[in-house]
Design goal:
single chain, binds adenosine monophosphate, binds magnesium ion, 12 strands, six-stranded antiparallel β-sheet, two-stranded antiparallel sheet
C-alpha cells in the first residue's frame, strides 16, 4: 500500500490536445478537515488507509497542495439538459487532479468535486455543499454494494466556508474515483463545434484506455458505440430493478463506460410508484422513474449524432437496436432473481408486470416487499400474512400469490436455496432519502458518525446486520416522498 506521495500518477487526459480541457489548480477550501474516509475506495488505488490521518491528506484534497505527480485540469464537455442542447458545460466545480494507476495497473481518475471556479463555471461559485457531497459519497457505495456500476468516492473534506444555496450552507469537497469521467457530452461538444478530428481522437482515446481489444479494428468505432449502448441499457435495467431514480439524466451526466455518475437529487423508491419524480425542478417529469429506460435510448441517440462522422448510418441503427433487448434481458434476469426463479419462462414478464401494478395500487414499500418475499410459504394453506398486510387491500395479493406459488412449483423451487438467492439480490438496506437526510443533519452539526455507519451498512446491503433493523424501516412521515432540489 502506497503513501500519498507514492501514488503513481499517469495523466493520460492531460496529454490530449489543449482544446479538451483547461489546466488549473483547485481553489483551497477554508479550514479544511476530514469528514469521512472510505477505506474500500483507498484500496482501489492502493492507498494506505492510515494516510487519511495525516494533515497532508486533508491539505491535498482540500485543494491546498497538490499530490505529487498530479496534473490538474477541468474537462470540457457540453450536453443536452432537459432536452435542450447547452453548448458550453464542462467541469464547473470539479477538477481532475490526475490519474492514478491502481495495484493491478488499472487507471483511476481522482476528481475533486467542489474545488472552486473553473473556466466552465458559468458564473456559479464552483463549490459543492456538504449535503450534496454526503449524498454522492453514500450513494456511490450503496449502488456499488448492490452490484450496480458506479463512480466511487475516496473521502469528503469539509470546510468552514459558507456557500449560498436556498439557504447558507457549508462548502465541502468530494474526491471521486472513476476509471473515466468522459461523458456523452464530451463527444457532443466537439461534434457540434465541427471539430471532427477531436471526436475521432476522443473515441480512439476512450477505446485505447477502456476497450483496447477494439483498437485499430476496421469496425472498432461501431463496436465501441454498441458496447456503450449495451452497457447503458444494463445500467438502467439495474436502476429500475432496484427502484433507483437518477433524477438528472442529462447527456452530460451519462458516463461513456455505463457507470452511474453525477449524483444529484436521486432517490430510491419507497412505496412503489412508477411516476416517481425525485427532482422538484423536474416539473414535466422528464426523468420520472418509468421514463428512465426511454431517456437512456434518447441520450444514446444524441451520442450517435455526435459520433456520426465516425459511423455509417447502418452501424448507428444496429447499435441502437441493441438497446431494447439488452435492457429487457438485464431487467428480466434481475427481476427473475428477485422473485427467486432459476428458470426462464415466457410468462415471467407478465408475473412481474402484474406484481408491480399491485405494489403500486396497494402502496407497498418496494425494497421491503421483495426482501420479505424471500420468506414466502408455498404450503397450500399458507396465507403469507406478513406479505398480505403490506397491501392496502390484502386480498389483492392472494391471486398473484397463487400464480407465484404455481410458478415456483413448476420449477420445483426449494425454499432454502430460493431464499438464499433472493437475499443476494433483494437488499435489506437501501439509501432511502430519510437515512441520507439523518446523516446530513448530524454532519451539519459536525457529527460524522452517521455517515460512517451508513457507509459500512450500505456497502453490504444484503446481510442482516443484527441490531441495525431500524435502518430497514420504511420512512417516517417527514421522510416520505422527499423531493430534492437540483442545487447542490
Ligand atoms: P450537474 O447538474 O450537477 O451535473 O451540473 C451541470 C453543470 O453545471 C456542470 O457542468 C457543473 O460543473 C455545473 N455546475 C453545477 N453546480 C455548479 C457550481 N456551484 N459552480 C459551478 N458550476 C456548477
Ligand atoms: Mg453533471
Amino acid at each position: 500500500m502506497a503513501k500519498l506521495h507514492e501514488l503513481r500518477f499517469d495523466n493520460t487526459y492531460a496529454r490530449l490536445p489543449p482544446a479538451f480541457y483547461s489546466k488549473l489548480a483547485p481553489t483551497p477550501l477554508a479550514e479544511p478537515h476530514l469528514v469521512s474516509f472510505n477505506p474500500a475506495a483507498a484500496e482501489l488505488i492502493g492507498l494506505d488507509a492510515s494516510e487519511a490521518e495525516r494533515p497532508e491528506f486533508v491539505e491535498a484534497f482540500g485543494g491546498k497542495s497538490l499530490p505529487r505527480g498530479a496534473e490538474p485540469l477541468a474537462m470540457l464537455y457540453a450536453g443536452h439538459q432537459f432536452g435542450a442542447y447547452v453548448p458550453q458545460l464542462g467541469d464547473g466545480r470539479a477538477i481532475l487532479l490526475g490519474e492514478v494507476r491502481g495495484p493491478a495497473g488499472d487507471k483511476w481518475d481522482l476528481h475533486l468535486k467542489g474545488s472552486g471556479p473553473t473556466p466552465y463555471s458559468r458564473g456559479f461559485d464552483g463549490r459543492a455543499v456538504l449535503r450534496s457531497t454526503v449524498r454522492e459519497y453514500l450513494c456511490g457505495e450503496a449502488l456499488h454494494g448492490l452490484g450496480v456500476p458506479t463512480t466511487r468516492a475516496l473521502c469528503i473534506v469539509g470546510s468552514s466556508e459558507p456557500v449560498v444555496r436556498e439557504r447558507v450552507e457549508s462548502a465541502a469537497a468530494l474526491v471521486r474515483l472513476s476509471p473515466s469521467h468522459v461523458r456523452f457530452g464530451t463527444f457532443e461538444v466537439f461534434h457540434r463545434r465541427a471539430q471532427h478530428a477531436h471526436v475521432r481522437q476522443l473515441a480512439d482515446y476512450v477505446i485505447g484506455q477502456h476497450f483496447p481489444e477494439l483498437s485499430g479494428l476496421p469496425d472498432g468505432h461501431a463496436r465501441f458505440f454498441s458496447e456503450v449502448a449495451t452497457r447503458t441499457a444494463r445500467l438502467i435495467a439495474m436502476w429500475q430493478a432496484h427502484g433507483f431514480a437518477h433524477g438528472v439524466m442529462n447527456t452530460d451526466n451519462m458516463s461513456i463506460l455505463g457507470l452511474t455518475i453525477d449524483y444529484g437529487p436521486f432517490g430510491f423508491i419507497d412505496d412503489f410508484d412508477p411516476g416517481y419524480v425525485c427532482n422538484h425542478s423536474d416539473y414535466a417529469g422528464r426523468y420520472a422513474f418509468d421514463q428512465q429506460p426511454a431517456v437512456g435510448l434518447w441520450n444514446l441517440t444524441r451520442l450517435a449524432e455526435a459520433l456520426s462522422t465516425l459511423l455509417a448510418p447502418e452501424q448507428i441503427e444496429s447499435a441502437l437496436q441493441l438497446y431494447p433487448a439488452a435492457f429487457a434481458n438485464a431487467y428480466a434476469d434481475l427481476m427473475r432473481r428477485k422473485l427467486g426463479l432459476r428458470e426462464e419462462r415466457p410468462a415471467d414478464a407478465q408475473l412481474v408486470a402484474r406484481l408491480l401494478e399491485l405494489l403500486q395500487r396497494g402502496h407497498v414499500d418496494y425494497p421491503r416487499f421483495f426482501r420479505a418475499l424471500g420468506d414466502f410459504q408455498e404450503a397450500p394453506g399458507a396465507t403469507n400474512e406478513t406479505l398480505r398486510v403490506m397491501f392496502d387491500s390484502p386480498a389483492d395479493f392472494d391471486a398473484w400469490a397463487a400464480d407465484y406459488r404455481a410458478r415456483l412449483s413448476e420449477e420445483r423451487s426449494e425454499p432454502a436455496a430460493r431464499k438464499a438467492l433472493m437475499d443476494s439480490v433483494n437488499p435489506k438496506y437501501v439509501l432511502r432519502n430519510y437515512l441520507a437526510q439523518n446523516a446530513i443533519t448530524r454532519a451539519e452539526g459536525r457529527d460524522y458518525s452517521e455517515i460512517q455507519r451508513l457507509l459500512e451498512l450500505l456497502s453490504d446491503p444484503f446481510a442482516e446486520h443484527p441490531g441495525m433493523e431500524d435502518y430497514a424501516a420504511p420512512p417516517p412521515a417527514w421522510g416520505r416522498g422527499l423531493v430534492l432540489s437540483c442545487s447542490s
